[in-house]
Design brief:
The complex is a heterotrimer of chains A (about 325), B (about 400) and C (about 300).
Chain A lengths: L5 H13 L13 H27 L6 H19 L3 H23 L4 H19 L5 H4 L5 E2 L13 H24 L2 H11 L1 H6 L4 H27 L1 E2 L6 H14 L4 H29 L7 H15 L3 H17 L1
Antiparallel strand pairs in A: 1-2
Helix pairs in contact in A: 2-7, 2-10, 2-11, 2-12, 3-4, 3-5, 3-10, 4-10, 8-10, 11-12, 11-14, 12-13, 12-14
Chain B lengths: L1 H25 L2 E2 L7 E8 L9 H16 L7 E8 L4 H14 L4 E3 L4 H14 L3 E2 L24 H15 L5 E6 L2 H14 L6 E7 L7 H9 L4 E5 L2 H13 L5 E4 L6 H8 L8 E4 L13 H13 L8 H20 L2 E2 L1 H8 L28 E8 L2 E4 L4 E2 L4
Parallel strand pairs in B: 1-11, 2-3, 2-4, 4-5, 6-7, 6-8, 8-9
Antiparallel strand pairs in B: 10-12, 12-13, 12-14
Chain C lengths: L1 H31 L6 H17 L4 H24 L7 H23 L23 H23 L1 H11 L1 H6 L4 H27 L7 H14 L4 H29 L9 H15 L14
Classes of the chains: A mainly alpha (about 325), B alpha/beta (about 400), C mainly alpha (about 300).
Chain lengths: ~325, ~400, ~300
């Protein structure tokens, strides 16, 4: 996969930081709700980024990253609710907890490959909501009722709304995590990770400690997704087992594939795109029902399914792969 | 004490009516979502995902508003009903409700469905001062006007209903040994806790409590456990699919307890018939709505009107599905609330009108059951009547039980 | 003791359901190398077809056969129309297509037939067989049908030229093409067969769990686990795996019960039975990574 042009990245970043400041000029366009929506996209992007580190760069499939997301969210919620910890301090805690959980899960996962790993992770995603409801943990997790939280308050008397602050909070977190991931992948360890994905046996014979790399990658990947979960706990201000059903994990997988497997920029695009596809499916189905007046009841879920298949048709390698291919074709036409 | 409260309520509400009608004459007043031509009402429903069986409620509500609009709307204004799919996922509910409130600018939310989903938006809507009216969940936490003055429930709460079953068990079953099947979530817990509270010091009579997850394919294993524990009373806290499975399995393995079934699954079409009529004779439940398959209502004016409306205006819906009765009744109440608002369509007035019903008769409620609310009473329906399954329908018995004193 | 027997019997009955769906998963895997996440929803859709035919007045078995044939055709069409153009796409992209299919099947079934649960008849006469109080006639019937389907598949793959060609196409497409097997049609055929087996599973399951668009949601995971326990490429293994998972799950709940009865302390119960069963399954898989009956593929450098 091609690297993202650096200049473009800086421009985008500067734009992302400036946009909320345009609120006084265009109050309806840069509304609190839109910023909140973008925050959820950023959160999804971080979660997908975590999954990409594992699946895209290390070749281990996971159908259960929703589990780590849930663990992160609950870690944050429990710390805020029981220990009155400030919301920003929960991020590193969630990262550590999820790293440990991910690392431990990575150990048996060493023995499993392909479909078997898919099953094991799938099972994890299914088991976590049930564990959250476990009788002896109820005091901590709030059981089936979940935990109601407060939204992050704007610090230092900054002249921002809650949603604007949340947006910056998420954005800065993502930038740091993205930068860290890019550096890691560019290092010796990153190359080892990818070598294990591409040529496991060769990597082994070259003296790379594949077991160590695989388990640690599992841990880091889980930590990324866990941080996303902790952010979501703050953003939604509520955690409950029902938020973390199996479809959440599937959602991350869709984001990963739609964006681009094995591309950091792809993860971000995937996270954004997933939220967009989901919302545009609703809008499209409403449009068909209300404006076209079709008799057949086209539900948002149907539209969503069709969109997915069409996307894979047009860009089987994800958006980043598709764009790359397009650019290459254009260039060869010109050349 | 009770009379005192009633008179106070009557006095207060009379004042409210006076003031509101004066306001109506004085000038038109609007909040977001209301105008001379339109009233925007928001809603979320699980049209996809595990709870999609409830999606019909949203569709029937939509059909109802369509009928209202075709007849000229409410005080000359058309109702724009914006309903969105949240898949029964709380985080998604927050997202779509924020869209409805901030982007589409609805006047109020109505009939948002599900306990965890409503919990997720509870605080938000109250902070924004947007009415969260007649929510589609029977949890007991929706009627707290002091802490949450913008949220109101509709149906009798699960807690109270379970208390009634518990009292009935104690009064009618000698030497009761109770087995409970419970869905392991918010709704199941609410019933279970109400039931335990109703048993009071006899709580030890529960000999076995078996839970299930909605992802379980069957509850057969649980039913076997209940039978094995020697239970002679079976309290069935399950949604239709699992309630039906459980009752059929009980009959299959020759377990014949006295059975209590939660109202959630009292629909003949979606629970009793699939369970097999032979297997469900004598089951007791509590009801507050008429069941569309119940022959005793065939000549009832409400039921006739509803059936005529269903065939004319909601043709693709299922006539035997009790959810459609529920949807009609609750939308009728919302319709009435908005009508009462007159030209004063502020969020505050919507809440004031919603909290101002005295023994109001909503069609399709059982005879003797009415809607009463007040600024201190945010539980619109608080009466149920027990009924027993006989032949192919429910047979009401005993008096209408009011839980207003609790 | 009575409970023990009943729990085993109920576990076997559930196991038969998992086994049936697992067989369909194995079918797709053997012929195309994919795990079809939409298998459950496709089976559900076929079951609705047979239900519809029955409400139009057809007899159970006639509707059954028509639905199975219909599913076969549908499976072939889906492979030709949707998956064929994507045969060069990465595995994960195919998985996303399966998820898209799942969403479409589920919501379209809901739109056509509504989400209200429907009772589904059982073809097995009520009093003639089954052991009273332990296993019902339908449950026993499902076990038998599953075994019959397994037998038919075995014969088909082992003794018919077409079955042989399908196996060849899956295992070594280049060589198969050289000896004149039309590989791409074999893939479509595999999809058709899997869809047909899925339809049988759906029709057998529907009587037990009732017919609704979400009826396969929970079952698919169990089927997935069953197929893997048995060894994903082995139909017989999948069936045994199904029974193992079904019984194991009930035994976990049973054991938790007995512990609670004996000591008064709640450790595991119904809420945790799936989790514990899955932990056991995965532990087994880490020891025997190819499943209990799968062939170990030796890696070559």
């Amino acid at each position: 996969m091609p690297a993202f042009p650096k200049k473009l990245l800086w421009v985008l970043l500067a734009l992302a930081f400036l946009v909320p400041l345009l609120h006084p000029l265009f109050p309806d366009v840069v509304s609190d709700y839109r910023l909140f929506l973008v925050s959820t996209m950023i959160i999804a992007a971080i979660a997908v980024l975590g999954l990409n580190l594992l699946t895209g760069f290390n070749g281990q499939i996971s159908l259960g990253h929703g589990a780590f997301y849930a663990v992160g969210a609950y870690t944050a919620a429990v710390l805020m609710d029981h220990l009155n910890m400030p919301y920003w301090a929960t991020l590193p805690c969630a990262a550590v907890v999820c790293f440990i959980v991910g690392y431990l899960f990575g150990l048996p996962a060493l023995k499993l490959e392909g479909h078997y790993l898919a099953l094991a992770t799938f099972a994890l995603a299914l088991a976590v909501p049930q564990i959250l409801k476990y009788k002896w943990l109820e005091g901590l997790t709030g059981g089936v009722q979940g935990i109601v939280l407060n939204k992050p308050e704007v610090p230092f008397g900054l002249p921002l709304s809650e949603d604007q602050w949340l947006y910056y909070y998420c954005l800065v977190t993502m930038v740091i995590l993205y930068w860290a991931a890019a550096n890691m992948l560019n290092s010796r360890s990153g190359r080892a990770m990818m070598a294990i994905r591409d040529q496991p046996l060769a990597a082994d014979t070259m003296g790379i400690d594949t077991s160590l790399y695989k388990t640690v990658t599992f841990g880091i990947s889980a930590a990324y997704t866990g941080i996303a979960g902790a952010l979501s706990a703050s953003a939604i201000a509520f955690v409950a087992p029902d938020s973390f059903n199996i479809f959440l994990s599937i959602k991350f997988l869709i984001g990963l594939v739609v964006g681009g497997v094995g591309s950091l920029a792809g993860s971000v695009i995937g996270g954004i795109f997933y939220v967009l596809v989901d919302n545009s499916a609703q809008a499209l189905s409403m449009f068909v029902k209300n404006d076209l007046g079709l008799q057949f009841d086209l539900s948002a879920y149907t539209v969503f399914g069709i969109l997915l298949i069409v996307l894979m048709y047009l860009m089987p390698m994800g958006i980043v792969g598709g764009v790359y291919l397009l650019m290459r074709r254009l260039r060869s036409l010109r050349g | 004490m009770k009379t005192k409260r009633r008179t106070f309520v009557a006095g207060a509400s009379a004042a409210a009516i006076l003031s509101s009608s004066r306001a109506a004459f004085a000038q038109k007043k609007y909040d977001d979502g209301a105008s001379d031509t339109e009233i925007k009402v928001g809603n979320t429903n699980p049209y996809s995902g595990p709870a999609s069986a409830y999606g019909v409620i949203g569709k029937t509500i939509e059909a109802y508003w369509k009928t209202v609009n075709e007849a000229g709307g409410i005080n000359g204004r058309k109702v724009k009903f914006l309903t969105m799919d949240d898949g029964y996922v709380p985080s998604k509910t927050v997202e779509v409700v924020r869209q409805l409130v901030e982007q589409d600018k609805v006047l109020c939310m109505f009939q948002t469905l599900g306990t965890p989903t409503n919990t997720a938006i509870h605080k938000y809507l109250n902070q924004k001062k947007v009415p969260q009216l007649f929510v589609a969940t029977g949890a007991s936490k929706w009627g707290k006007p002091k802490e949450f003055p913008w949220t109101m429930g509709f149906q009798p709460d699960y807690h109270t209903e379970a208390v009634i079953y518990a009292k009935h068990v104690l009064a009618n079953v000698k030497d009761a040994k109770i087995g409970v099947l419970m869905q392991n979530d918010d709704y199941g817990k609410d019933y279970y806790e109400g039931f335990r509270e109703g048993l009071g010091k006899d709580v030890g009579r529960i000999v076995k409590h078996a839970s299930y997850e909605t992802t379980d394919p069957t509850v057969e294993s649980q039913v076997i456990q209940l039978k094995d524990a020697g239970a002679n009373v079976f309290f069935n806290i399950a949604i239709p699919k699992f309630a039906a499975q459980a009752m059929r399995k009980a009959a299959d393995i020759g377990w014949k307890p006295v059975q209590y079934l939660n109202n959630v699954s009292s629909s003949v079409a979606s629970t009793m018939k699939p369970a097999g009529f032979d297997n469900v004779q004598g089951v007791v439940t509590a009801q507050y709505l008429m069941d569309p398959t119940d022959k005793q209502w065939d000549n009832n004016a409400d039921m006739k009107m509803w059936k005529a409306w269903m065939t004319k205006s909601n043709a693709q819906a299922n006539l035997t599905d009790a959810s459609n009765v529920f949807a009609y009744a609750v939308t009728f109440l919302m319709h009435e609330t908005l009508k009462k608002c007159g030209d004063n369509l502020t969020r505050e007035n919507v809440m004031r009108q919603a909290a101002n019903f005295q023994k109001f008769r909503v069609p399709l409620l059982l005879p003797g059951i009415t809607v009463s609310t007040s600024p201190t009473d945010f539980y619109p329906i608080q009466a149920v009547q027990l009924s027993r399954f006989k032949g192919e329908s429910w047979e009401l018995f005993g008096d209408v039980m009011h839980a207003e004193s609790t | 003791m009575e409970q023990f027997l009943q729990q085993i019997a109920s576990g076997l009955a559930n196991g038969a359901i998992y086994a049936c769906v697992a067989l369909a998963l194995v079918m797709i895997y053997v012929s195309t190398d994919h795990i079809n996440f939409a298998q459950g929803e496709m089976a559900m859709f076929s079951t609705y077809i047979s239900w519809q035919l029955m409400t139009w007045g057809l007899s159970f078995w006639f509707a059954f056969i028509l639905a199975v044939v219909f599913s076969f055709v549908l499976g072939v069409i889906i492979e030709r129309a949707i998956l064929r153009p994507l045969h060069n796409a990465p595995v994960l992209s195919i998985v996303v297509v399966f998820i898209g299919l799942l969403a479409i099947c589920n919501s379209v079934a809901g739109a056509i037939w509504s989400y209200l649960i429907k009772e589904f008849p059982s073809p097995f006469p009520k009093s003639s067989f089954g052991i009273a109080g332990v296993i019902g006639p339908h449950q026993l019937g499902v076990v038998m049908v599953t075994l019959i389907v397994l037998g038919l598949l075995f014969v088909f793959f082992r003794y018919t030229p077409l079955g042989l060609a399908m196996r060849a196409a899956a295992q070594n497409p280049q060589m198969a093409r050289l000896v004149g097997v039309r590989v791409d049609w074999m893939l479509a055929l595999g999809w058709g067969l899997a869809a047909a087996v899925g339809a049988v599973a759906g029709i057998m399951v529907a009587h037990i769990v009732y017919l609704d668009p979400n009826m396969m949601g929970g079952i698919l995971l169990y089927a997935f686990a069953s197929a893997l326990v048995g060894g994903i490429s082995n139909p017989g293994g999948a069936v045994v795996g199904g029974f193992i998972v079904g019984v194991l799950e009930n035994m976990v709940a049973y054991a938790g019960n007995q512990i609670e009865k004996a000591t008064g302390i709640y450790i595991i119960g119904n809420g945790e039975k799936l989790t514990v069963a899955l932990i056991i399954v995965i532990t087994v898989l880490t020891v025997k990574p190819a499943g209990l009956f799968g062939r170990v593929v030796v890696k070559r450098v």
